[in-house]
Amino acid sequence: MARSDLLLSVVRAGASGDQAALRSSVEAIVAEERSKNHNVLADRLQRALHTVSVASPARSPSASHAGRDTILESEPRQRIDDLILPLPVARQVQQLVEEQHRADLLRANGMQPRHRVLLSGPPGNGKTSVAEAVAEALAVQFFTVRYDALVGSYLGETNTRLARLFDYARTVPCVLFFDEFDSIGKERGDIHETGEIKRVVSFLLMQIDQLPSYVVTIAATNHAELLDRAVWRRFQLRLGLPQPSSDALAVFLQRQFDSWPETVGTRASTVASKLGAISYAETLEFCQTVRRQHILSLGGRSIKDILKEQLELWATRVGTNEVNAARSGKAAPSPE
Ligand SMILES: Nc1ncnc2c1ncn2[C@@H]1O[C@H](COP(=O)(O)OP(=O)(O)OP(=O)(O)O)[C@@H](O)[C@H]1O
Ligand SMILES: [Mg+2]
């Protein structure tokens, strides 16, 4: 919500005696002031807010906090520098962080920082990590939307919960993360359900449009092709996180090897080419297995030997080719 709208909603809430609305509007202003580092003003506003008596028993004491149970709050730990990102992605993430950090300057010139990001790519290549790293870089809370708590079985219930979720999110500068974003818009067989889902999606998009720029909304999907154009249009930054190239994988492996107590004695690029097409998450799992076996050997085996053995075992694993072939009823291509 733009600042003038916030001020208007404070006046309207005050004039009509709607204390819950007054509280949530003032909380939004407090959050906005904090995001600009105007902490003295934010503290004064907050103290003034405490003198507002609690809403009538018919209303919840703080309407904005009712949305808290649809959100998982966590301290972001992932750092951007620890991620290996395609150059254009790294550059755009940097720009997003800079625009948020220097939002004051932008606002003074009538502009808002960008704050709506869509991340797409196959599993295990950094979508959740990037969202968390943006929150870490901005030193704000990381909120993950809980669909299990959001989707209600009664007509209209989901939209009510969504409205509460957004009310809560706008009380504080944060990263609001929608994982598996395509699952929300996926059409179902039942025609009534489809109508309801369409209402939910259009309400969700409207809410995302109206979020203040200190709430950075990040949506992630493995299936960008399933999202319709109305959804795409909402996102100012659309970043692809593909499976790593062989070179990127070698860099990732080298970082892992460097953290081990013993020299590996095998080139990271050789290991990368043996691992083939694989996600960062799987590579990490592979490296951790090598480390586990090395620890358990109590120094009896060299890490080079263990790595060699694990690479042989790796070659025998069930891969996505086999799984896909089994799903489509075809035989998997035999290894050369
Ligand atoms: N680009 C990357 N650079 C470095 N490490 C990465 C990268 N991507 C993923 N990882 C490692 O893999 C782990 C899992 O990645 P993450 O959860 O971010 O993937 P994701 O794309 O969200 O997967 P999913 O689609 O399954 O949710 C991370 O915790 C991190 O250790
Ligand atoms: Mg994820």
Automatic annotation (TrEMBL):
Signal peptide: none annotated. Keywords: ATP-binding, Nucleotide-binding. The keyword Nucleotide-binding applies. The keyword Nucleotide-binding applies. It comes from the Bacteria. It holds the Pfam family AAA. InterPro entries: AAA+_ATPase, AAA_ATPase_domain, ATPase_AAA_core, ATPase_AAA_CS, P-loop_NTPase. Residues 113-245 form the AAA+ ATPase domain. Belongs to the AAA ATPase family. This is AAA family ATPase. The lineage of its organism: Bacteria, Pseudomonadati, Pseudomonadota, Alphaproteobacteria, Sphingomonadales.
